[in-house]
Amino acid sequence: MNEHSRPILFGEVLYDCFPDGKQVLGGAPFNVAWHLQAFGLNPFFISRVGRDELGSSIKNAMLDWGMDTRGLQIDDTFPTGSVKVSVENNEPSYEIVNDRAWDYIAYDDITHIKDGFLYHGSLATRNQTSRSTLDKIKQALPFPVFIDVNLRSPWWDRSLVWKDIENSQIVKLNDLEISTIIEQEQTLDHQIETLLSNSKIETLIVTCGAKGAIAAHKNGERFNIKPERSGHLIDTVGAGDAFSSVLLLGAINKWPTQLTMQRAQQFASQIVGIQGATVKDRNFYKSFITHWNL
Which domain holds residue 189? Predict the structure, then answer.
């Protein structure tokens, strides 16, 4: 990957704050960018942090990880984002604070990037300022769009999420989220068909927890993957983002769908063995890089 061909990731960066007092870097697009950097893709991450201690910490972490910080904006009014994470029966829940710096991402010219993918989640568009900026980016850079749907109440609107979904080429969401969006269809197969037939989606990925995940192409092809048994479960925070990072890695490297799904599941199964969504030990990635010939 070079300056003219690289993944662009837009949206929130924040700290996940756990009950034991530990703070871990997070935010879906940031998590994906972090993993892609480790995999050698040189992502361009667009977000905004406050002029505060947490914001400085995020920038320093990016620099230490070798990430490009030119897309990280500094806000003099709103603070850096944070989320209170609680975990019960290994399932996380999130209290996402409103009016944080990443809600006010401004538009900067990035047309120097000529080719790549644009990734964003649905949470990043909860505020009109960041949503307007994302729309401008989509107009300026006609790249394939990968949206990772995360319906975090009360921070989503059905009509806005549907608009983003129907204009994206790759869409990932879980089985509960697709049932919430496509209420009129009773079976998962019908929900998948409804989304594919009423949108620009080329590939739809539906994760189904312990049952695995499904990748469905518009041409009718279907691929299924079952989760691997993980050796040690700490929490599932960031597991979906880990899965998404390898889906994007596979799309960029043009891996076959089944292989991409298998590798995404392998990587996500390892992330659940650490607390939080990001790993600062490069050795964590070495076996994947070796086995995947990256």
Answer: 8-288
